[in-house]
Amino acid sequence: MVTPTTSRATVLSPEEIGFLTAGPGRAAETALARLLDAGVVRVARDGRVSPVHQSGGGVTVVETRMLGRLTKPVQFGQVVQASANSLEMRVLQQGLRERKLIRNPRPRMRLWWIFLVIGSFLGLAALTEPTLLVGTAALFGASWWSFGARPVTRAGRAALEGVTGDDRVLTVALHGFRGRVGGRNVGDLFELPQSVVNTVPRKNRKRTDNDGAGYGSCGSGCGSSSCGSSGCSSGSSSCGGGGCGGGGGGD
């Protein structure tokens, strides 16, 4: 199994790296990658995942829950989606929030700058009419609020700095099974046919002004049960902010 990765004095597990990179769907992909890497599960030619052993093998609660669902072979993409929307994934998400690595995002308003412009003019007028300072402060506050906020905090982005795909599990965390690195499909690292990898829902390519480092377009399973008010913005991974679109596939 891959050991947790330390970046800037913040210890992150591969699942947490996946979540900060692209939301709950990517974290679920990472959990599955860890199980495959350890030989705990296998993938049949038809894309169905089954455990190699009847019990044990999961290191994290997300992995353990994923294994618990495999009472019979399940399609690769369905394993990812079910885990992304699980209670265990929401617990992981809450843990990241408590560590102030993520927060409830705010979408950026298209005309956020208008508040800033008007506030600046009002601030100049306040030089001769101090009573206008209250309105100036209110407009600057509205500008700050309407500018929006990314789901991943500054601390979360700092924790991701320097994280690289040193092994195939971390490569999945950063790029997803559908991603490509150095001209090679990430799925090839696990000898997975592309037809199997393609069962992982593709993430939403549509980005907003608020997207950026972190899960600006979250992975599969970014549905209302794991996003929304709990950590992604109302569409939920895009979650933009959690605002999700499709799967946690490649970048």
UniProtKB/TrEMBL annotation:
The keyword Transmembrane helix is assigned to this record: yes
Biased composition (Gly residues): 238-251
Entries under InterPro entries matching the protein: Ser/Gly_Cys_C_dom (IPR026467)
Transmembrane parts of this sequence: 109-126
Keyword annotations of the record: Membrane, Transmembrane, Transmembrane helix
Domain of life: Bacteria
The UniProt record lists the keyword Iron-sulfur: no
Biased composition range(s): Low complexity: 226-237
Chain positions covered by the region annotation Disordered: 226-251
UniProt-recorded name of the protein: TIGR04222 domain-containing protein
